[in-house]
## 1
Amino acid sequence: MLHNMDFWMVAVPVVFIGYFMFGVSGFGSSLITVPLLSHVAAPADLLPMLVLLDICAAGVLGARFRSGVAAPEIKRLYPFTLLGAALGVSLLVSLPREALMVAIGIFTLCYAAYQLYDPVDLKPVHRYWAAPAGFAGGLMTTLFGAGAPPYVMYLTRRVVDKAGLRSTIAAMAVLAIGARLLAFAGAGLMFRSEPWLVFLLLLPAGALGLYCGHRLHLRISRTQMLRTIFVMLLISGGSLLARALLH
């Protein structure tokens, strides 16, 4: 990556756009960065670098706006996230991943399309839905590297405040990405110099994207933010379907 000019020509604008969307909604950077940058870099080189950018972006939003984080919701979600992640590890080698990706992709697409029809009328769900949402998010994080949709579906129906919703999604992202970072470290992927150097060189583009996304977040209404989130869920579902069908 470091000496590949094609990589840099693609990476700088893609990282900016990915973290612009993260600044608006609190998630979704990997939906843009991973598919596009995979064309110009090997996953074993790309993913360790992106996990560093992800945890920085999520950490900035989570820490900067921590007063808005709905901590009780995090406490409800995270234990089940760990259970789902643990099961995902055990199923990783035996589960028919393509079939599961198709099922989850179709569900996510249908849910997002339905909510885009009327994002204002989001009826609150019971806190007990944290169990399946957290479990599904942990499972998807381990199996596909994309666990945000179940958390987002749950939190958009539990957290009313626009800024609090973004902060809470970002806080969940910190925990999920942190677990992924530890997994990469355990596999020895974080102990090479190149991912760290590329991360440092791309950090300004990511930081600028995050800042611009945050500025837009301040200017839009909760309804507009929900529409943005549901569009990101559409992209997420479509991405899962594409990965399964093109495998």
## 2
Amino acid sequence: MEFVWLRNDLRIHDHQPLVDALASGTPVMAGYVFDRKHDSVTENGFPRMDKKRRRFLIESLLDLHQQLGRLGVPLVTAHGDTAREIRNWFQQYPLSHVRAFSYPGVEEIEEAQAVEEAVRQFGSTLTLYEGETLFHETDLPFTQEEVPGSFSAYRKKIEKSRLLPRQEAGEPQEQTPLYLEDHAETGEELMKQFRTMNASTLVSGGEKEGLKRLNDYFFLTRHVLHYKERRNGLFEFDDSSKLSPWLANGSLSPRRVYWELKRFERVVEANKSTYWLFFELLWRDYFHMLLRKEKHAFFKKSGIQKLPVVWKQDAGLFEAWCTGKTGYPLVDASMRQLKATGYMSNRGRQNTAAFLTKNLGIDWRWGAAWFESQLIDYDAASNYGNWQYVAGVGTDATTFRIFDVVKQGRLFDPDGVFVRHWLPELQFVPNEYIYAPYEMEELALIEAALQLGSDYPYPLVPLEHSAEERRAEHEEARKIRDSSSN
């Protein structure tokens, strides 16, 4: 019996392991393990996977349970150590071969090695496939060791080579329904878990929902034609594609997005916005390739730049940042949005990450861990790659980039609609002060029914002064690194 080990590929479209298993002529079953590492708690005391992402995951598995059922493929699930649970399935069922996608993360590689060792004890093998990115690593015009240190160089090499993503895997064929008692129990258990999940998310999980959003954004509303102009918006749902949650757990294939984008350009229109969506997919690919290259360095404090910045580990400042109580409305509204919905705009992520690292000077890994916990679109490569980038220890780290969170708010939400939605205590603050209420005179505060220090906090740090302190620390770290390498 063929076994398809499901990981971050919770779909039936563009799924080569599933296609090959069903074409093998032997019965096929699929399995997913809720690995115990996701039940762990971080050093700061919060869960590694918050209930919002867990809910989205369960919704995705419920949908996949139905999709696989239509193909006659039973789905079983388990909680615990992945290798041990797969070993248990080998003891329970006459399994002969395992197929799965490979992933670039350090934990994912170690997990696959453990599974390979476990099934070898039964005389079986594990076949791994590429498929979490647009391009296969073997198709790139450079080796893994030659992956450029900047996205711009990566993009130019890809575009110069005229490389195209591979076509999607074919449609999986149906098999004679394979009945397993555990398949029915899996559906019941997933539904039971779903009903107990007291959490709400921005969107619902599952391949069906992901494909619907893709079609709506491209062909139904054609909002993709305005993606480049609207992508920095903070409040409206269609300011961006919102495809990232389904891409993150593999309910939606990046190649499906790409080829649907090409179809849209062919039958509707190609413009700067459609190119820019491809541009963002390429960023996602780049971080995945960079993670494959850098491995453990992707998660180290000094980053891939090996920059010995002395980061603070101040629990009080970090807690204020997590809960949206920094005294800077753009940061606070974005953090409260994240906590409530499991989502934050790209502009919000850049500003909140920059504030934590470039103003508060807090260890960027703490921020990355909080985003991992809270985001329903958490993806290890994109999350840690972007955090290193903003913190100045990752790719493209030639300049010290800062974000003025007051100016950014005024630029991208001048009327304060986003802020007032998430910070109702600022409801009556005039637009000119909505991103800097600490600048208001006493009479203006009274008229706005706002008391700083109780209704809303004073700023944790002064923006310009704190950024200059961080700049000096980074310059010193560069001197130390460069002198030690000479």
